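Technical note accompanying the year-one report. For the benefit of new consortium partners, we illustrate the data format agreed upon in the data management plan: each record pairs a sequence with a structure-token string. No post-processing was applied to the example shown here.
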Amino acid sequence: MSAQPFTFICGADDFLVDRLGKDRFATAAREVEDEFSREVLSGFANNVGEVETAINRFRDSVQTVSMFGGKRVVWLKDVNFLADSVTGRAESTLKLVEDLQELLAKINPAETTVIITAAPVDRRRSFPKWCEKTADFMLVGGGDDSGEALAGVVLAEAKSLGVSISPDATRFLLAKVGANTRLLVEEVRKLATFIDEGAAIEESHVAELTPNVAEGDFFETAEAFFSGDLKWTLAALQRHFFTGGDARPVLSALQNRNRILIQVRALLDVGEVRLGHRGLDGLQGATAYAAKFTGATEKSSFNLFTQNPWYVGKLASAGRLPSLKQLIDRQQEFISAFEGIVERPREQEEVLREMVTRCLSAA
């Protein structure tokens, strides 16, 4: 185990943090034969009173001497009072965290292995900064929209199951499931049981077995349309309307993605950004254009700079990126389709079939 006095694991995603904490605790617990010397405590607190209770229980635990004189392992899990929250900002909580810091500074790792898992954490405060310098510190993943961190979860889970997953399958899985790490892990496990031994999880497996969680049942149509595959797009539309779907969410999904691609195409054409293996390189540096969106901080397809560069890059590189004129023409086609379903409400599927055929045949 680590030479540092304790282990501190934190991150934005409580599921990922807890998984790593569980692995660390299991490793440490194997070195402790006495089951009464292994203790798991909850650090979850809804108010200052519960913060005090959690820290007092932790103090009692780490100051307890093992019945048989051996080493103890204590895991304080699900700590949430280090976040930028009402409870986390309270003066009483900050004082209790100072007490916790003093307690941790006195830990003897030869006698007690201490593991703390916390999510989320306000890393601007002094305690996390102290942990980073003092403890065996681990920051897990990125934010919940970090594509690279989520892809890492998929790849790590596949590896642990003894299977591989293709880059296209990973991209498609992330697009279908979104930033739900728990569901991503479960989907990888499900896909791993489906494939033959020694085979890789491919995009076709994801398309067949993974539900459209991120954008609903109309996701497949958007994915098919922007891949440029007319046959797949028409089949996806048929499936959507066969189950009683409406045209509006499909058009909304198409417009949202096309709106992002128009902005990407414009920046690519003037050389402000470039498509690379890590997504859209230079997006964060295009500050001159970002300033035009002052006040628009919420994630929206109207503002490219609120999007994750990795995700945007994957959207743009999923197929051949059309010209700016083609993208604008498509946006006009979507508007015309909205007008068409108002005029022909009983022929919504036909309106969309005509629209996608015009768009993709002209590509």
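Partners are asked to follow this layout when depositing records. The radius of gyration is 25 Å.
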